[in-house]
Amino acid sequence: MLYSFLALLSGVNVAVSIMLNARLGAVKRLYKGAFINYFLGLCVALPLALIVTGFRLGSVQISLSELFILTGGSIGYLVVLINNNITPKIGILYVTVILFIGQIATGALMDILAGEPVSIGKITGALLILAGLIYLVKAEKE
Question: Whole domain around residue 18: which residue ranges?
Answer without folding.
Answer: 2-141
